[in-house]
């Protein structure tokens, strides 16, 4: 069994004089999450907790530095997160989110880490996150930094899904479902409540509707099934994603050279 590492070098623990040397040649990892309803069984912090755990493990694996996780996310939508009618969800709008991410990155650019890895845990963040990074013109803003940004579920292989979850509804609807529940049972079992909810009609991908038939869209904020969730599945998925992170980074240009490692 592989052991998780949670104790890593934190960006905020550095002093100002230490920061440039600590970042020089290093990988800086930024988990970006959210505070969003996740049904009656999971805490509001799921979309933060999962990328934070993955980011910590990556920092440990590459001897990097952990940037403080971003706790607030872009707007929750009815067909991919239940929407804002559930209590507890706190969001920032898309334009503000893009500005916020871009300004954080502009500040980090001055330290020129060799590699910046952004790990996203909230479905609706993804396009906005990529727009924020691309909109900075990274070739100019980060001339010596390789940037890799991804949502954790993008690294789950089709084969893995087919074997473990044959009725998988698509990642847009896998909200508070088997994968998030299992990951939380592995990472933070103490905050997972015993109640389980199944929703028989997951929303279609890429379709927005008004008016929303709230009962058809979710059951208590769960868009799909939670049956079959377990800490064992969560552990397997966590390390499957970590293997995907290693593969993704190995397939990147060598830090600082702008060339592919395989070239
Ligand atoms: Zn989530």
TrEMBL record:
Keywords: Hydrolase, Metal-binding, Zinc. It comes from the Bacteria. InterPro entries: Creatininase-like_sf (IPR024087), Creatininase/forma_Hydrolase (IPR003785). Its cofactor is Zn(2+). Belongs to the creatininase superfamily. This is Creatininase. It comes from Streptomyces crystallinus. The lineage of its organism: Bacteria, Bacillati, Actinomycetota, Actinomycetes, Kitasatosporales.
């Amino acid at each position: 069994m592989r052991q998780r590492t949670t104790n890593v070098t934190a960006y905020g623990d550095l002093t100002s004089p230490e920061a440039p040397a600590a970042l020089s040649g290093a990988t800086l990892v930024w988990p970006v999450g959210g505070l969003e309803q996740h049904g009656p069984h999971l805490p509001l912090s799921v979309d933060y907790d999962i990328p934070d755990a993955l980011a910590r493990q990556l920092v440990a694996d590459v001897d990097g530095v952990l940037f403080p996780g971003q706790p607030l996310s872009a707007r929750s939508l009815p067909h991919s997160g239940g929407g804002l009618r559930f209590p507890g969800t706190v969001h920032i709008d898309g334009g503000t989110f893009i500005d916020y991410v871009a300004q954080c990155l502009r500040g980090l650019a001055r330290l020129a880490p060799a590699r910046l890895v952004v790990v996203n845990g909230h479905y609706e963040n993804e396009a906005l996150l990529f727009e924020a990074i691309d909109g900075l013109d990274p070739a100019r803003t980060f001339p010596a930094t390789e940037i890799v940004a991804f949502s954790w579920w993008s690294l789950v292989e089709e084969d893995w899904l087919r074997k473990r979850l044959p009725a998988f509804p698509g990642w847009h609807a896998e909200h508070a479902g088997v994968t998030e529940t299992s990951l939380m049972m592995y990472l933070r079992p103490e905050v997972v409540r015993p109640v389980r909810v199944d929703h028989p009609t997951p929303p279609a991908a890429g379709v927005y509707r008004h008016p929303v038939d709230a009962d058809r869209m979710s059951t208590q904020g769960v868009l799909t099934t939670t049956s079959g969730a377990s800490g064992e599945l969560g552990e397997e998925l966590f390390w499957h994603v970590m293997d995907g992170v290693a593969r993704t980074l190995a397939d990147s240009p060598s830090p600082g050279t702008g060339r592919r490692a395989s070239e």
